[in-house]
Every structure is written in structure tokens, then in C-alpha cells.
Design a protein that fits this description.
Elements: E1 5-8, H1 16-29, E2 33-36, H2 49-62, E3 65-67, E4 76-79, E5 86-91, H3 98-110, E6 116-122, H4 132-145, E7 150-156, E8 165-171, E9 181-182, E10 191-198, H5 204-217, E11 223-229, E12 239-247, E13 252-258, H6 265-282, H7 288-300, E14 302-309, H8 314-326, E15 331-336, E16 339-347
Helix pairs in contact: 1-2, 1-3, 1-8, 2-3, 5-6, 7-8
Length: 358
């Protein structure tokens, strides 16, 4: 009988992060898992549509045996098979974040036996998750440092509450990841970004968000923000948001803001600008959105990876807990002048489904 690794879904962050990390690493490392107490302390415990679709997507990719996969379930069993490239579709049928679907499925596709195309449907610019533009503008460039890549095409925008967004992601598998050293940030160059409105909202809101961001960033930084209104055929529903990014020779940083009722466009842009300014002033090499996302890749890469970050978030601590449980690696976090240095000697996983590199 195959041993099934037990994962308590209520520890630390106690939400979707545990599920995403557990399912991704289960598929990649071919370790059956049983996740219990799923989102036990949440107002609505158990699997929501977004979590369920992410698990089912990975299950399809690796031909897994899946038990307990239904809305509201607080326990699942996931027994993976071989990860296969191909064409996969996942639709949250809500405004559930497409970025979080990418988080759970992308690492699996990198260790598939061939190229993967994913058509993902749901929310493109959602609260409590990285906006889809952040994944392209910031996270993709960080992933490049691990020796991996993906291509993304936004076919339709989807916002709360209706969703309906559609993103196509194309991934070429890797033979092996590369370790990273994001320790010396270097000089910040120009800051870029997008500031958008959609639906019935006036385009002046986009310019007001950009102005708010510029005001918070101050005169020490040069900002090039594209302010625009989405075409109604691309984005029929109301939404306004902003995504900022900046690069150095070794690092990529970003920040997001999303409009909500009762918050002026200037405040939305100002909050994103203030967040990015604080990240820049702190001297770190990854922002809070990327901090937890790099943990899985650090655990799988060969040799020592090191990252200079802000204080480790609960999401990051959760990711480390699952990586140490399933990949049997050891992370070391040391505090240094208000920053955390995160280090891990990864397992150097080889994708044996691909032909040997010449």
C-alpha cells in the first residue's frame, strides 16, 4: 500500500496556500497526499470553487486519483500519476483568481513530458491575489532567473463579481531549474506600469490612479505609466486598477492596487505607489507577492538559493512548511537589518520525462 503524506490544512495560513503547495509538490514529486481540515477556520470552511478547479486542473495534468473533490469538502486525497503535457481547461465559473490557478499548475507544467497549453477562466484582476498583469510583468521575469518561462495571452478580462476572464498560458517544460541568488539589488531603473479602467468607468480615473502613484513615489523616481480604458469587447464590466513594476540588473519588484467602493482612484494609485516605494526603500530583492511564490522553485532547484526579502509573511512560512514536509529540504531564515535572508539547498529535481540534454 502506497504511503500517503498527511497534511493539516489548518496550520499557519490555514487556507488556499497550503492546498496549492501540497498539490503542486505532490504532482511534481509523485507523493500521494491527504489534506485535512481544509480552510477549517474560514467563515465558509472547505473547498471553494477556485480551490476545487485548481486541484482538478492539476489532477487532469497528472492523471491523479482524486477523492473528496467537491465544494465545501474539508478533506481530499490526491494520488498523482505522470505529468503530461497537452491542452487543459479550468473555469472557476466565478471571479476566482486566474493568477492562483497559474500558481498551482505552472510548476507542474514545467515538469511535464512535453509543452502545455492552459486555457484558464475566472477573475483576471481580483482582490486578495496578484493581478494577472503582475504575473506577466513581475513574476515571469523572476521565474526566468530559475531558468523557466511561460507565455501569456489575456483574451478577456474578468472582474468581481461576474468573472468571465480568459487567459491562455503556454509552458515549455524544463530539464532542471536553476538556483538563484537574489541578494544584491542594485540600482532601481525607471518604473513602469499600467493604470486601467473598464466598463462604464471614465478614463480620467486611470489618469487619477497614475497621478496618485506618482505623488507617492516622489521626485526621486521616474514613472512611465500607461493610462487607458479597456475595450468593451475585452472587458465589459466595471473595474479600475493599477500595476507597477521596476527592475534592476538582478531583481524585479512590483505592486498592485484595485478599485473598490468608497475608495477614490487617487487613493488606489497612491496605495500602490506607497507600497512600491516602501519595498524599494527597504532594499529587498523580492516583493511580498513574490516572496512566497519563489519557495517551491527554491526547493526544487539544484544547490543553494538565497533571497533577500522583507519579514517573512504567513504565506511564505506556510510555503516553507509544505516544502520541508514534502521535498524534505531545509530552509534557513536569518534576520539582517530589518530584512529576512531566506536560504535553501534544493533537491535538484531532474525532469526524467524529457530526453537527456546533450
Amino acid at each position: 500500500m502506497v504511503h500517503m503524506q498527511e497534511i493539516d490544512g489548518s496550520v499557519l495560513e490555514g487556507g488556499g496556500q497550503i492546498l496549492r503547495m501540497s498539490i503542486s509538490l505532490s504532482a511534481i514529486l509523485n507523493i500521494p497526499v491527504r489534506v485535512t481540515n481544509i480552510r477549517a477556520a474560514r467563515k465558509n470552511p472547505g473547498l471553494a470553487a477556485q480551490h476545487l478547479k485548481g486541484i482538478q486542473l492539476v489532477a487532469n495534468m497528472c492523471q491523479a486519483e482524486l477523492k473528496g473533490a467537491y465544494i465545501g469538502s474539508t478533506e481530499i486525497e490526491f494520488t498523482p500519476g505522470k505529468i503530461r503535457g497537452g491542452h487543459y481547461v479550468a473555469d472557476t465559473q466565478t471571479a476566482g483568481s486566474i493568477s492562483l490557478l497559474i500558481q498551482v499548475a505552472l510548476p507542474c507544467a514545467l515538469f511535464a513530458d512535453g509543452p502545455t497549453i492552459m486555457d484558464l477562466k475566472g477573475g483576471t484582476n481580483a482582490d486578495m491575489a496578484p493581478q494577472i498583469d503582475y504575473m506577466d510583468m513581475v513574476f515571469r521575469k523572476i521565474l526566468n532567473k530559475f531558468g523557466a518561462d511561460f507565455n501569456m495571452q489575456i483574451l478577456r478580462r474578468g472582474y468581481f463579481p461576474r468573472g468571465g476572464g480568459h487567459v491562455r498560458v503556454e509552458i515549455t517544460p524544463v530539464h532542471m531549474l536553476r538556483s538563484i541568488s537574489l541578494m544584491d539589488r542594485g540600482e532601481i531603473g525607471d518604473i513602469g506600469g499600467i493604470s486601467f479602467v473598464a466598463g462604464n468607468l471614465p478614463v480620467k480615473f486611470a489618469y487619477q490612479m497614475a497621478d496618485g502613484a506618482k505623488h507617492e513615489m516622489g521626485s526621486n523616481h521616474r514613472l512611465n505609466i500607461r493610462s487607458y480604458k479597456e475595450d468593451r469587447s475585452m472587458a465589459p464590466d466595471n473595474c479600475n486598477g493599477i500595476v507597477l513594476s521596476c527592475s534592476t540588473p538582478s531583481c524585479v519588484l512590483g505592486a498592485c492596487g484595485l478599485g473598490r467602493r468608497g475608495v477614490s482612484p487617487g487613493e488606489v494609485g497612491g496605495s500602490a505607489g506607497r507600497l512600491l516605494r516602501q519595498v524599494i526603500d527597504s532594499g529587498v530583492c523580492v516583493d511580498s507577492h513574490a516572496q512566497d511564490q519563489v519557495i517551491l522553485y527554491m526547493s526544487l532547484a539544484p544547490g543553494l538559493s538565497s533571497v533577500r526579502s522583507g519579514s517573512s509573511t504567513l504565506h511564505t512560512q506556510t510555503a516553507i512548511h509544505i516544502a520541508e514536509t514534502l521535498a524534505k529540504v531545509k530552509f534557513e531564515i536569518t534576520s539582517e537589518g530589518g530584512q529576512d535572508i531566506i536560504k535553501c539547498a534544493g533537491i535538484g529535481l531532474v525532469n526524467k520525462s524529457l530526453p537527456e540534454e546533450q
